[in-house]
Amino acid sequence: MLKLLYAPTSPYVRKVMVCAHLAGVADQIQWLDSAANPVRRDDRIAVYNPLAKVPTLILADGQALYDSRVICEYLAHLGGNADLFPAAGPRRWVALAQQALGDGLLDAALLARYERTARPAEYQWSVWREAQLVKVDACLVEIERQIEPPTATLPTQAPTIGDVTLGCALGYLDFRFPELDWRASHPRATQWEAAFRKLPAMQATLPHEA
């Protein structure tokens, strides 16, 4: 049995669990409670991951895997899903680049959120937070550019790790940054996300407060 140190609100945990569902191995994962925090280390995580971050996957032999990129590829391999991480070729590099784009959006969004939620009010730096949101907006512009025209087939069949990461990133904006109203100026991304969100793997992993 695999064990996953997790937080129910983490978009990176969601990314891992979406891959687990797509690879058919979600029922092989036991969820372990943790309290990941950017300031206060949780020893339950740190004993396996020196960064004390989630997700952290513990294998049957005790070996730990992190971060989400490594865990997702491991789960895809474990379940024999060759679509998530395509073999060498153009499709693979597109998928990996989209994963980097989605992860970059999430990194910036999390830093913007931590500035308000983890830093004492007297030390908060609004210029820093706005700079992170500029990165979020730039990622949204690039996602919109990359989305195929509306007549194209939406990636609800054989999604790649790029699709999964972008879907989780856009879902995180809905969850934590509804005031950004990203759909208002990104119609192609809106249509893409609405279709992708209907996948059972996405519906089974919707974020929620603990």
Automatic annotation (TrEMBL):
Domain spans labelled GST N-terminal: 1-83
Domain of life according to the entry: Bacteria
InterPro entries (UniProt xref): Glutathione-S-Trfase_C_sf, Glutathione_S-Trfase_N, Thioredoxin-like_sf
SUPFAM superfamilies, alphabetized: GST C-terminal domain-like, Thioredoxin-like
Signal peptide as annotated in the record: none
Pfam families according to UniProt: GST_C_2 (PF13410), GST_N_2 (PF13409)
Name this polypeptide is given: Glutathione S-transferase
